[in-house]
UniProtKB/TrEMBL annotation:
Lineage: Bacteria, Pseudomonadati, Pseudomonadota, Alphaproteobacteria, Maricaulales
This protein's name: Lytic murein transglycosylase
Claim: Signal is one of the keywords in the record: yes
Transglycosylase SLT domain sequence ranges: 24-317
Annotated signal sequence range: 1-19
Keywords: Signal
Classification via Pfam families: PG_binding_1, SLT_2
Length: 403
C-alpha cells in the first residue's frame, strides 16, 4: 500500500506542479501588458516579472485561519510586554528630537507612533524576508484577492520608476506589507512621507521616513493630538445593554450620566465629556470595559482590529511608567475557535437568526445575530462569543431539535 501511494505521488505531484506553473504563466502573460499600460517602464516590468515563479506558501498563509483564537489578554501580554516597553523607551530616549519634530509636523503623539513601530516590526528588527513582488503576484494569480494584489503590483511599478525603492529592496511580509511600519505599496504611495527631504521615502532603513509615513496616515485619518484614544471604564451595576450598539457613538457626557465612570477613579475632564465615544466590551460584560474615542477610529484605519488598537494604546501608556488594565479578564470564558464559530453561526441560523453565510469568522453580522439571541433569551447583550455563550447557543439548538 505504501509503495502504491509513493508511486501515485511521484506521478501526481509533478503533474500538479506543472499545472500550477502553466496557470501562473497564463496570469503573468495577462498581467504584463496591463502593468505596461499603467505606465511602468520596460526596465521595471522586466525587473519585476521576468523569471518570476509563484510562492505557494503565500497562498497557504492567505487561506490559513488558525483554529484557535488568542484571547485578548494573552495578545496584550505580548503586545505590551516588558521587553517591548523597555526597547521602546530606549528608542524614545535616543530619538527624542526626531520624534518631537515628527509630532509637531503631523500633529500625532509620538508615543503612539513608537508603539505602532514596536508592534509592526519590533522597532525595525523584524520587517519580513519575503519577496514582495513574488508574494503579491502569487496572491493575484490565486485569485481570491486578485484586484487588490494587482493594484499593489502596479503601485510597486510606480515605486521603482519614481526611485522610491530598488527592486532588490522590496522584501516584507507574505501579504506584501513592507518596511519598519509595514505599509502595503498603495498606502506607501499615498501616505509615505519624506522626513529628511532627501527625495526618497525609505521606510526600510530610515526611521524618520517610516515614522513620518505612519504619522501622515494617522493625520489624514483624523488624528487629534493630545486627545484621548481609549479610557478604561467601569459600568454601574445593572447597566442596561439592550439598546447598546458597539458601532454607535454617544457623547461621553451621556455615558457619564448613565453611570459609567473611569476605572482609575478620576473625574472626567471637560474636553473628554464633549467628545463622542463608543462603549467597547472586547471580552464581554465580565471583562474590562473601554470607551474608545475618534483617535481609536484613526488607529483602525491603520489596522482594523480592536485587539491591535488596544495593544497600541496600552503600549503607548506603558512607556510613561507603571500602567495596567484594572479590570479582570474572564479567563474561564475564552473566545471560541474558528470551527466553533462556524458551528455557532449555523446554530444561530437554525434558531432563526441571520449571521450571514457561515464562514467561521466572527464579524459584525454574527455579532448582531448573537446579540439578538442574547436579547431574546434574557442574557446580557454584550455580543461576546466566548465558550459560555457558545454552550448556551448549542443547548438552545439541541432543545429546538428535540421538540
Amino acid at each position: 500500500m505504501t509503495r502504491f501511494i509513493l508511486v501515485v505521488m511521484c506521478v501526481f505531484w509533478p503533474a500538479l506542479a506543472e499545472a500550477q506553473d502553466e496557470g501562473f504563466a497564463d496570469w503573468l502573460a495577462d498581467f504584463r501588458p496591463r502593468l505596461v499600460e499603467s505606465g511602468a517602464s520596460a526596465g521595471t516590468v522586466s525587473a519585476m516579472l521576468d523569471g518570476l515563479e509563484p510562492d505557494l506558501s503565500a497562498i497557504e498563509r492567505d487561506r490559513d485561519q488558525p483554529e484557535f483564537v488568542r484571547p485578548l489578554w494573552q495578545y496584550l501580554d505580548i503586545a505590551a510586554s516588558d521587553l517591548r516597553v523597555r526597547n521602546g523607551a530606549d528608542q524614545m530616549a535616543a530619538r527624542r528630537g526626531m520624534l518631537t519634530t515628527i509630532e509637531n509636523r503631523f500633529g500625532v503623539d509620538y508615543e503612539i507612533l513608537v508603539a505602532i513601530w514596536g508592534l509592526e516590526s519590533s522597532y525595525g528588527a523584524i520587517q519580513g524576508d519575503r519577496d514582495v513582488v513574488r508574494s503579491l503576484a502569487t496572491l493575484a494569480w490565486e485569485g481570491r484577492r486578485r484586484s487588490w494584489a494587482e493594484a499593489q503590483l502596479i503601485a510597486v511599478g510606480h515605486m521603482i520608476d519614481n526611485g522610491y525603492a530598488r527592486r532588490e529592496e522590496l522584501f516584507g511580509s507574505w501579504a506584501g506589507a513592507m518596511g519598519q511600519t509595514q505599509f502595503i505599496p498603495e498606502t506607501y504611495l499615498r501616505r509615505g512621507a519624506d522626513f529628511d527631504g532627501d527625495g526618497r521615502i525609505d521606510i526600510w532603513a530610515n526611521v524618520g521616513d517610516a515614522l513620518s509615513s505612519s504619522a501622515n496616515l494617522l493625520s489624514e485619518a483624523g488624528w487629534s493630538q493630545d486627545a484621548p484614544v481609549v479610557v478604561e471604564v467601569v459600568l454601574p451595576e445593572g447597566f442596561d445593554l439592550t439598546s447598546w450598539n458597539p458601532s454607535s457613538a454617544r457623547m461621553t457626557a451621556e455615558w457619564s450620566m448613565r453611570g459609567i465612570t473611569r476605572a482609575d477613579g478620576e473625574a472626567w475632564p471637560a474636553d473628554y465629556l464633549m467628545q463622542a465615544s463608543r462603549l467597547n466590551l472586547p471580552s464581554g460584560l465580565r471583562g474590562p470595559a473601554f470607551l474608545t474615542f475618534p483617535n481609536f477610529q484613526a488607529l483602525m484605519r491603520y489596522n482594523n482590529s480592536t485587539s491591535y488598537g488596544i495593544g497600541v494604546w496600552l503600549l503607548s501608556q506603558r512607556f510613561s511608567g507603571e500602567f495596567s488594565i484594572r479590570g479582570d479578564w474572564p479567563e474561564d470564558d475564552p473566545p471560541i475557535t474558528r470551527s466553533q464559530t462556524l458551528a455557532l453561526q449555523q446554530g444561530l441560523i437554525d434558531l432563526g437568526y441571520d449571521p450571514g453565510a457561515p464562514d467561521g469568522m466572527f464579524g459584525p453580522n454574527t455579532r448582531r445575530a448573537l446579540m439578538s439571541f442574547q436579547r431574546d433569551r434574557g442574557y446580557a447583550v454584550d455580543g461576546y462569543a466566548g465558550r459560555i455563550m457558545y454552550d448556551q447557543v448549542m443547548s438552545a439548538v439541541a432543545a429546538s431539535a428535540g421538540q
